[in-house]
Amino acid sequence: MSDVPGEPGPGPIDDNVPIPPRDQLVKTAAKFLSSRNVVNSANENKIAFLKKKGLSDAEIDLAMRQAEVIIQSRSFDSNVYAVQNFGQPHAPTWQHQPSWMKYRDIGNSVALVGGLAYAVYWFYKKYLEPFFFGGGKKGLDSRLADLDKMITSSLSDLKSSVSRVRDDMERLTERRIESLSRQIDELKNEVGSLKKLMLSSVILGTCLCSDKSSLPDIELDPVDAETVSLCDSFRSFDDTFLATSISSRRKRSRRRRSRLGNERK
C-alpha cells in the first residue's frame, strides 16, 4: 500500500521494457569487429563472443553496423590515397629528334629488310630450287654422270670379288688334287709292298715245305724239322700281317672319305 492516500503505489518491473544501449561497449565492440584479424571470421562466432561478454542483441546489432561503417571508411581512405599518389599518370615528355636521326633509322630499316631478303633469296637458290626443280638440264646430266660412276665402281668391285673367289677355288682344288694324288701314291705303295710280301711268303713256303709231304718224319734231320717250323711261323706271320694291313688300310680309307666330305662341306 502507498503512504500517500489516493496515489497509486509502484507496480512490478516489466522485463520487456527495452534497455538503452551502452554506447561505450558498442564502440568497443565495433572496433573489435572492424579489426583486420576479426573481419574474416564467421558472424556466428562474433555474435557468440559478444554475448559471452554481456552484450545484448540490440547492442550486438548496433556494433556490427558501426563496424561495417568503419570498414567502408577505411577502404575509401585507402582508395583515395592510392588515387592521389598513383592515379595521375605522368605525362610523357616529348623530345624533338633531328632529321638526320630519322634518316638514320630509315636507312637501318632498309638495310635490315634488304639483308633478310637476300638471305631468303640465297636459301632459295641454294637449297629449295635444286630440291624442287633439280637445277635444270645441268643438274640432270650431273645426276646421270654420278649414277654412271656409281654403277661402274660397283661392277669393278663385283669383278674383283668374283676373281678373288675364283682364285680361292682354284687354290682349294689344287690342294685337294695334290692330297688325293699323294694318298693314291701311298695306297699304291702299300699294295705293292703287300704283293711283294705275299709272293715272298708263297715262294718261301713252297721251297721249304715241299719236302715235308714226300719224306716221312723219321727221315727228317733236326735241321729240316727246324726249317719246317720256321716255314709254319712265316705262314702265320704272313696271315697276321695281311689281316692287320687290310684293317689299317680300311681305317685310313674311312678317314680319308670323312676328311674329303668335311672339305666339300
TrEMBL record:
Gene Ontology molecular function, alphabetical: signaling receptor binding
UniProt-annotated location(s): Peroxisome membrane
Domain Peroxisome membrane anchor protein Pex14p N-terminal per the UniProt entry, residue ranges: 22-65
Superkingdom of this protein's organism: Eukaryota
Xref: InterPro entries: PEX14, Pex14_N, WH-like_DNA-bd_sf
Keywords: Coiled coil, Membrane, Peroxisome, Protein transport, Translocation, Transport
GO cellular component, one term: peroxisomal importomer complex
Listed GO biological process terms: protein import into peroxisome matrix, docking
The keyword Transport belongs to this UniProt entry's keyword annotation: yes
Region of interest (Disordered), residue spans: 1-20
Family membership noted in the UniProt record: Belongs to the peroxin-14 family.
Gene name for this UniProt entry: Pex14_1
UniProt-recorded name of the protein: Peroxisomal membrane protein PEX14
Keyword Coiled coil listed: yes
Function field: Component of the PEX13-PEX14 docking complex, a translocon channel that specifically mediates the import of peroxisomal cargo proteins bound to PEX5 receptor. The PEX13-PEX14 docking complex forms a large import pore which can be opened to a diameter of about 9 nm. Mechanistically, PEX5 receptor along with cargo proteins associates with the PEX14 subunit of the PEX13-PEX14 docking complex in the cytosol, leading to the insertion of the receptor into the organelle membrane with the concomitant translocation of the cargo into the peroxisome matrix.
Coiled-coil residues: 155-197
